[in-house]
Amino acid sequence: MIGRNTSINEFEKLGLNPSLIRVLEEEKFEKPTEIQELAIPLVLNRKDVIARASTGSGKTLVFGSTILQNTKKGFGIQALILTPTRELAEQISKALNNFSKYNRLKIISVYGGVSINPQIENLKYADIVVGTPGRILDHLARGTIKLRPLKTLVLDEADRMLDMGFIKDVEKIINHCPKPRQTLLFSATISRDIIRLSKKYMVNQIEVSAEEYVDPAKLIQVYYDVDEGLKYSVLKHLLQNEKTKLAMVFCNTRRNADFVANNLKAMGVDALAIHGGFSQEKRSRIMNQFHSQTCQVLVCTDVAARGLDIKGVSHIYNYDLPKEAKEYIHRIGRTARAGKEGKVINIVSSRDYINFTSVLKDNSLNITCEKTPFVERTMIKWTPEIKRGSDRFSNRFNGNKGRGNDNKYYGRNYSRSNYHSNQGNRNRDEEKPYHNRDNRNRDSRSNDNRNSRSKYSYTRKRRY
Ligand code: AMP
Q1: Could you state, in order of their start, the residue ranges of all structural domains in the chain?
Q2: 364-391: per-residue pLDDT in tens?
Q3: Interval between CA 428 and ligand 1 midpoint (Å)
Q4: Would you say the CB of residue 188 lies under 6 angstroms from ligand 1?
Q5: Ligand 1 center to 270 CA (angstroms)
Q6: How far apart are CA 27 and CA 124, in angstroms?
Q7: If you take atom 7 of ligand 1, which residue's CA is the nearest one?
Q8: What pLDDT digit, counting tens, does each position of 327-346 carry?
Q9: Is 0.70 topped by the overall pTM?
């Protein structure tokens, strides 16, 4: 076409159709990313593909291209994309809706934590479904999702789905899909389990791998070895003294995320927590605030932040060190993207030593030790309250009792602060696999809140 810029031509050469090209032009996509260049011709050829690609690599357009070009409106669910988290499901369905704006396919997202009834209604007319495994299985059990017309199945962030214990759910769902189909698998890491899964369910699969979108030259990684009791104070000091655009602070538990975010807020730092203990509506609202940069610091657990494409994150803080390098790499992939610079700051105290040692086993990580700055111990303003006879904490900072009276709660000091230690998986922020749930057929309840209060968990929770 005369006058068309040459770089858009590169997308045409990959085989994308005009309506999709038009969207890419409007989005000002200049040229294909590496994974797009490698994988789009294969997926448009209806090959089964395993793509080693992480968040920010442009993988949505890869599976989006074959799905959008092979789906006809009104012929039932022709593509299913499985994701580990609700946020990622939302993000993908938004991106696909945008890509399909000139052929107006019905794309819906389906996940737990919200009412099932509107989903049942929407599924009747859906052409493409993006969802988390647990809720998709709910629908399969109810007969409210019909996969017979399915042509393309995508397993996105497959490594994460397996880590979260979704393997049985994923396999059950695959077994509900018709056999003649295209299967695409995207994963930041290719483990033995991923290979086993691909051998079992894919046909003549082709593996492609793209370089990390994160430029290692632009990524600085440091750690501070701090006293247990100074962990929070060091974090606060760094947040206030580093030149930060947007920062993400990673915690291993919901409780730690609340602890950090509420104390930062109480001390005037613009911070919000996000984790699976919140309703889906609240999680979406918080993500919007962070995307629009009305909040500068997002304190999060891994699941809530996984796979999200957030622009302008200059700093990643690991308030708790993740258990292994794989998780660490996922966390740091949120910064130094698209050629920008980024910094990763690990605040390591004795409770992190085991995890940090495990992370450092990955020789590719270049993390240097920084001298800990002189900081005074910050007075903790917010501590979760342990109610007698209850295993729940009340939120005195935001809650009814403390409204308007935040400064009243100069709390207990660190003698009790081990409550936010990094022991075990008690409060891991994850959607539950379908087979682990108590109330399989209840709708409109968050899967995250369905843990039974066993005597065991009760007695453990009192020991802080
Ligand atoms: P994804 O990895 O698919 O979540 O994409 C990450 C971000 O990169 C999204 O904001 C996309 O809109 C953007 N993106 C994807 N492909 C390209 C491209 N070829 N050029 C510029 N931006 C892109």
Answers
A1: 8-209, 216-455
A2: 888 999 999 999 888 888 887 654 444 4
A3: 30
A4: no
A5: 28
A6: 31
A7: 56
A8: 898 888 878 766 678 999 99
A9: no
